[in-house]
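$ fold --in a.seq
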Amino acid sequence: MKMNHLNLIEENSFKYVQSGEGQPIIILHGLMGGLSNFDKVLLFFPQKGYKVIIPILPLYDKPILETTVKAFAEYLNDFLLYKKLDSVILLGNSLGGHIALFFAKIFKPKVIGLILTGSSGLYENSMGDGYPKRGNYNYIKTKTEEVFFNSKIATKELVDEVFETVNDRNKLIKTLTIAKSAIRHNMANDLPNIKNPTLIIWGKQDSVTPPSVAKEFDSLLPNSSLIWINNCGHAPMMEHPDEFNTLVFEWLQKKRF
């Protein structure tokens, strides 16, 4: 959860980074995703007239019974109430996309648009269960590299962060709890009722949430657009940040957000 060029704001039990003024874009990070995953998004959109806010989701800080997709959506609502924001665009990667969708289900009027990339919610691979050799650094390095089309994106810093997470007993238990919650909160039956304009950006070589998942999201969401990024895995905003930002910006302009 490192942020180099912006200070972390800590207020009223919330931690977040914020940049720019204008229409708010709230970014929701994934289970193994730190704030640094969105560095280029944070630099780009404030220059285009948007306010970008990334709250740190309390994935490992809540009691087990509150470590659920629904509880994180409610946490996001508390954060937006605190910030006095009621008309936002949600951009979520992986688990963050799932939380965005669940938020749109229960707080629909607050969401003017959704941007999903590598989102969970329909297909859950074994997030936490996929680390049986968690004490083996090279194994964790390989698993982290598999998230990307270009394995060089998995820097030592990123691998170290994942290694630390899966070897921390509390974090591992919470990771497994979130994985089970994600399976319980499958969104297939809810998506036809989520009519918010939605942009789906997907890596063609995503092995975590495969391309078939993106197609299913697109078929079930009534107001969606699907765009592919080639030579790209599970985190387009990290592997192809310029293309990702351009596609999102063009969609926002088209929708007049």
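$ fold --in b.seq
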Amino acid sequence: MNKEQPELIDATFRNGSMTGIGVITGFSLNFLTRWGANPVPWLMVDLFAVAPLVAGLLLQVWSFVELLRPESMQLSVYNRAKNHFLWGTVGVLVGVGVALLLDVLQHSTPDMLK
């Protein structure tokens, strides 16, 4: 029996991806921490920003953890981790965009929106 070997990626490529994912995940965590520490009171509508932000951050961390496993050298495992990270980044971007929009709408005067 000849078992087919899975396609592997280069360790240097995986390590570079881990570095990039770690940096971007750190920025995402920093944004969530700074936004959460903002002295402005939270409203229920802020959940529209928090939900995608937290979900995206969890996906980013999950992808980083996936890349720490030795099996992440396999192309299929690497691609799955990469896709989790990309979807997580989309979630974080949506959350940040909604947070900025809510801040503008909540803290602007009617004259500013004309």
